[in-house]
Amino acid sequence: MTTHPRVAWAITYIDEHLDERLSLNELAAKAGLSVWRFSAVFRKHAGVSPHRFICLQRLQLVRTLLADGESLASAAQVAGFYDQSHLCRHFKSAWGMTPSQYVGRQRSAAAMTDGSREREAA
């Protein structure tokens, strides 16, 4: 994804601290760059702004947690969202459906797959 060492560091740091509040000022300072320079370098090498990257990483974690059976409240907390409402707004904006709709579709897909396997075994 990226070859810039400070961006690679930032991505690792973000992934390890998704449940914490991550500010652009903090990330830039830890990377040893000004906020403006950090944002520009990050966007160039990661393809999105630092804020967008953090949000997408959190949303991906939520999808994994929900698929593993976590509750929406627990997934929101673990992924670093302020609350369920905050999570739902970002989730719907990113994927065009609410987390509940996503879980429903996952269950439907799993049921269809299980049904296909049962028919094949018969």
UniProtKB/TrEMBL annotation:
Entry annotated with the keyword Glycosyltransferase: no
Domain of life: Bacteria
Keywords: DNA-binding, Transcription, Transcription regulation
Domain HTH araC/xylS-type: 8-105
MF term (GO), any: sequence-specific DNA binding
Gene3D superfamilies in alphabetical order: Homeodomain-like
Entry-linked InterPro entries: AraC_XylS_family_regulators (IPR050204), Homeodomain-like_sf (IPR009057), HTH_AraC (IPR018060), HTH_AraC-typ_CS (IPR018062)
SUPFAM superfamilies the UniProt entry points to: Homeodomain-like
Name under which the protein is recorded: AraC family transcriptional regulator
